[in-house]
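Internal QA ticket QA-208
Title: Verify multi-chain structure generation after dependency bump
Assignee: T.L.

Test input:
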Amino acid sequence: MIEIKHVSKAYGTMPVLKDCSTNVAKGEVVVVCGPSGSGKSTLIKCVNGLEPFQAGDIVLDGTSLSAKDTNLPKLRARVGMVFQHFELFPHLRVIDNLCLAQQKVLDRTRADAEARAMKLLDRVGLTAHAQKYPGQLSGGQQQRVAIARALAMNPIVMLFDEPTSALDPEMVNEVLDVMVELAREGMTMMVVTHEMGFARKVADRVIFMDKGEIVEDATKADFFDKPRSERAQLFLSKILHN
Amino acid sequence: MLGGFDFDVIWRSLPYLFFEGMRFTVMLTALATAGGVVLGTLIALMRLSGLPLLPQIAALYANLMRSLPFVLVIFWFYFLIPYIGQWITGASRPIAVGAFASALITFTLFEAAYFSEIMRAGIQSIPRGQVAAGYALGLTYWQVMGYIVLPQAFRNMLPVLLTQTIILFQDTSLVYVISITDFLGAASKVAQRDGRLVEMYLFAALVYFVISFAASQVVKRLQSNTAIVAGH
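Actual output:
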């Protein structure tokens, strides 16, 4: 579903991604972790072309991102993305946040878009808030709306960029629960997170990044039980003992 | 001192002052604001586009316009627009452009430079993540701007845009240099005709003050309202 082939990227002379390669198969849940500044957020933003890269290629469901004739907006419409800071549109009601791209990108009618939006809001437990503005919701509620907004486009894959790290601790689980449910339904997911509990629960594979490199790319069991690299061991010991 | 005042001259000339003079002033202010905001927004988008050359052209335009005295620009365009029109349409002689059309074009182009700076600040005040979220949903550049960035930028900048409009309202009096009768011009004509300079100019000042002051109070209230809406 996602093929990342030898992707490299640099800001000026500072490399942020060095020859990164990996694959995500259909229905697979891959967790990307690593210390801050390791390039994991940059990598996931490269997958839907939000961040340009200088070398290598990414192929999404058969479509190459770097090919000249690729219609990026059309491709992005099929890739859901959830951001660290939610990025709901503050001037639009929750329902309009969910309907905007459905109507403008997928040409759905208002009635159709609204019906789908309400179904998804029901799924994340927020139908009562459809007419509110994002600023009237808590962080956890906003992130659940953001997930619903991404799902409204019927994506073939969902990307999560540290979806819980801007949340108060008591709101982390309401968001993770939605993500776990999504993973169990067979959604293809690539998740940048520090939530190792989530990784243990639903991940098929774990990718560990450090200094712009994919240091470890292993099944969940291998990663947690016998990480090969020293850097991954160190990272795990720090994160699991806190 | 007020004993020699003739308040009746004001009363008698009210219809002329407001239906002729003020009508023109308000119309020019409204049209130039509308045109200036639209054009200024396009210039701001050019300036922030990151495409080759466009940002430089936009910056040159904004900086040039803001470095010239407005009266000079009004004069300049008044004499130049007929020739520019000739050049664009390929006509054999300079196009006749009325004084009003000339003033409207000049004010729109001039104000666009100021509005472009305001809109640029407004667009830059929107977090980059909002743009990323729009793109991630599959929206195009113009859709992201039109539905997400500009509505928020416009709302954030509304008090500043209105303040600029109040300044424009006062600046419309500069049309006297191309012999158009705005509110001040009308007052001035009556003053000269009846030899009532003190009364008419005092009255004109009072009218400008009342309108501008009232408008700036409205802006103040708006400012405290948008301050609550803002926040992420």
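Spot checks passed. The first strand of chain A starts at residue 2 and ends at 11.
Status: verified.
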